[in-house]
Design goal:
mainly alpha, MetI-like fold, two-stranded antiparallel ribbon, 11 helices, globular
Length: about 300
């Protein structure tokens, strides 16, 4: 009896493993189809002008998403640029210089706590602590002292995504074979040269995967960005100006959308956001595979 139960259990595990990929494909296709169905009225009415126009006027049912696409891409890229030096430095320190010890364990714990912290906490901290500092800086620079805006949202986003790149990159760097490192030392290479010529090239695909994960988080982040970007439905005049991302405009207006076209336009923004995220993920997979082949 126990033998038959073990066989049936093994068969059940095998079936679940076989079904899982098809279920994920079905789930992704369902999300795409659902968003397309609900956004079809906006697609039918506006067509490509929805992407090329930046006018967003719920009163007269004139909708365009160019301003939101622009702000989403700018904040995501800017946050990634700001976060990379800190993420890679921490990953190298914890994965190469300090793999063990009290300091390493403390830093790992802090990074994991930051990665798991709710985004609304980052938003509150940014709104009440960082925005006043940014406003004072803008006064000294001679620009309009909004406090909130593209730069403020990007800096808070950078702080939020640092742990993701750091955790993955640290794990990959720590897996570099000691034989390669010792061989580099035996040839007279310094630690810097070993990191540059051995550790970093060996870990490049894994580091890029961490960067890609962070970029995806930055594109889709909602609450913290909504609290810090200024929520202006127009293309920002400067990096210090207020704007609105695709995720933040959905969060701000979804519950207040009463007209069918307004609601459908928000669904269309969600569909575009999913398409943009998918494109970047596919491009990332191509680059990762290229790095693996070269390695």
């Amino acid at each position: 009896m126990e033998h038959n139960f073990k066989i049936n259990k093994d068969r059940l595990y095998f079936r679940v493993i076989n079904i899982s990929p098809y279920f994920l494909i079905f789930l992704l296709a369902s999300i795409y189809i659902t968003l397309f169905i609900f956004s079809y009225p906006a697609i039918k009415q506006f067509g490509l002008s929805f992407i090329t126009s930046s006018k967003w006027d719920p009163v007269f049912n004139k909708f365009g998403s160019l301003a939101f696409i622009y702000s989403t891409i700018v904040t995501s890229i800017l946050s990634l640029i700001i976060s990379l030096p800190f993420s890679i430095s921490l990953a190298i320190y914890l994965g190469f210089y300090k793999k063990e010890g009290k300091i390493a364990e403390f830093l790992k714990t802090v990074i994991e706590l930051l990665a798991g912290m709710p985004s609304v906490i980052y938003g509150f901290w940014g709104l009440f602590v960082f925005v006043p500092l940014m406003r004072n800086l803008e006064i000294k620079l001679g620009v309009l002292p909004y406090g909130v805006g593209i730069v403020s949202a990007s800096i808070i986003l950078a702080i939020m995504i640092i742990p993701y790149t750091t955790i993955i990159s640290r794990e990959v760097i720590s897996l570099v074979p000691n034989d390669l490192i010792e061989a580099s030392y035996s040839l007279g290479a310094t630690k810097y040269e070993t990191i540059k010529n051995v550790v970093f090239p060996y870990s490049l695909s894994g580091i890029f995967a961490g960067v890609l994960l962070s970029f995806g988080r930055a594109i889709g982040e909602t609450m913290a960005v909504t609290m810090l970007i200024g929520n202006a439905n127009s293309i920002p005049q400067s990096l210090f100006g207020p704007g609105n991302t695709m995720a933040s405009v959905i969060a701000n207006e979804f519950t207040e959308a009463t007209g069918d076209i307004h609601l459908s336009s928000l669904f269309l923004i969600g569909l575009l956001l999913l398409i943009i995220t998918s494109i970047f993920n596919l491009l990332g997979r191509v680059v990762i595979n290229k790095f693996k082949i070269e390695g």
